[in-house]
Amino acid sequence: MSESLVVGLDIGGTSTRALVATTTGTVLGRGRAGGGNPTTHGADAAAGELRLALTAALAPVDPGRVSAAAMGLAGAGRLLADPVARAAFDRVWDQVGLRCGYDVTGDALAAYASGTPHPDGSIVIAGTGAIAGEIRDLTLHRVADGHGWLLGDAGSGFWLGREAVRRTLAAIETGQPRSGLPDLVMTELLGDPATGGGPRAGPARRTVDALVQAVTARPPIALAALAPLVVRAARADDPVAADVIATAARLLAGSVGRIRGDGDRGPIVLGGGLLTGDTPLSAALGDALRERWPAAPLVTAGDGAAGAAWLAARTLPDVTDPAALHHRLLGAGVLP
Amino acid sequence: MSESLVVGLDIGGTSTRALVATTTGTVLGRGRAGGGNPTTHGADAAAGELRLALTAALAPVDPGRVSAAAMGLAGAGRLLADPVARAAFDRVWDQVGLRCGYDVTGDALAAYASGTPHPDGSIVIAGTGAIAGEIRDLTLHRVADGHGWLLGDAGSGFWLGREAVRRTLAAIETGQPRSGLPDLVMTELLGDPATGGGPRAGPARRTVDALVQAVTARPPIALAALAPLVVRAARADDPVAADVIATAARLLAGSVGRIRGDGDRGPIVLGGGLLTGDTPLSAALGDALRERWPAAPLVTAGDGAAGAAWLAARTLPDVTDPAALHHRLLGAGVLP
Predict the structure, then answer these.
(1) Domain A5-107+303-330: which topology?
(2) Which SUPFAM superfamilies does the annotation name (chains A, B) (predicted)?
(3) What is the pLDDT of residues A307-324, one digit of tens each?
């Protein structure tokens, strides 16, 4: 009963997940709440979600037994630099009865640690956004991209969705027959095909205008919701979608290349919703990475909250074999 | 004194310009007011600017003598489809004493007509946005791009500005020495070089974060304000800027290629702030266009309000030589 406990948190734009585990790798509690990023949700709302997730995860245990904690979140630097958000998080920490401190790390490091206990390697994430990072001694040493949808996130879900619309507009303007990815995009954004003449330059322009208006009526980031159409069309061997996926893989591999030396042999962890499943993008990126770094083990990211918990646990005195603890908490996720 | 008059209007995002001329090509009045696009400024504000510009231009003449008018504006189709905006414009028309009707054309056609009286040709515009259009019988037949900054405007001022920041971020992440275009961008957005360590991954990441924050703190379209930095750096033979300009020229030529057949021999009019001066982009685009369409005359767009006035005048019974009228109103703008 005196075995100490650790808390790991994975704080994202759409969910906040908490995990409580023993230092021997037994998970005792889990909690989940809504998006808890103070940068995007505001400090109070984020703190509220953090409390919900922590309260649920800590319910089966005495919070006083927790001796280390780590949270991974996008924009960790902004939390650390924002005294209001930091104070709100500190208050929640007291309210749920935690006595230990907590480390704040970027989501990139937490995702890396969810895939491997190796101290040196690379992480590439493609979800709504995209980022690549070099990990040295389990700290984030260098980063490429992660610049957000306006300036970067090359190969991300946003990028895929925007490219899907761009290819659709080009297909219409060059008079391609309606099929494949452009057809999926038009149906998703417009319902049935737009018909009839327009005041300026005929039906093609009318369809183009309707598509542009459908996209610009929503927040730009909503383009990421079209990414699954690209994945679906690529699975059905649509050539336009296959080219979009190939380009995304090339861009993501290029981001890795900005932070990884040609001779590096550490693992490359693939994280984010577009890379952790058996998706065309993870397959294409795996090929591109193997070509450039044939010796690198490719690993799929696991549970980010468990990755953060492992990061918190590994420096505790009673954790004598961090790699074994990693295996118990996270298993092995080597790509086929 | 009984010679009839025409009115031309060039309605843009930053200015509304009106011109009154005789059908023999003598300009009698000009007016200028603020941005008058009803789509971006709202119907009432746009109508107010329209009235200011028209009132000034019509001051020297009897408005009852005006027998034809045309206005070129971006999103002409939206004005025609919006009864509120149309009614507001109609009210202004009555208030300033005009009795004739008015044609509404896209800014692309007005820009084309400001460069040439030839009935068939192409127009390519690069200002804040970018669009290419095929003109047949002095109507806009087909269009490529003009999709706005989120989805397109490839090779536009927005595109140049965003690309300038992207190249700057890449230069920082790959450890390039600070010089040329990246140096101009950093100085413009951050003032002096950012220094010191960051909480996540060192000074490079800190500069990257500061740049991303400086850009995302403003409306996306503000990126277009960085386009002059690209032009300036390209003039100073900076290789990064030269590559950005070359890519923009290729994208603009590609947009022209979507709407112009390989054998087309009509003129190509270059319009918009990035193409009407002696700029590196107009030179690079001129080269790209000459390579693909060696027989096409390349022409610089002139005064859009005069182009619209000519469009209005050319069908009047007392205009027997539209080409001669075009020459008197707009001169000749063939590129060297």
Answers:
(1) Nucleotidyltransferase; domain 5 (3.30.420)
(2) Actin-like ATPase domain (SSF53067)
(3) 999 999 998 999 999 999
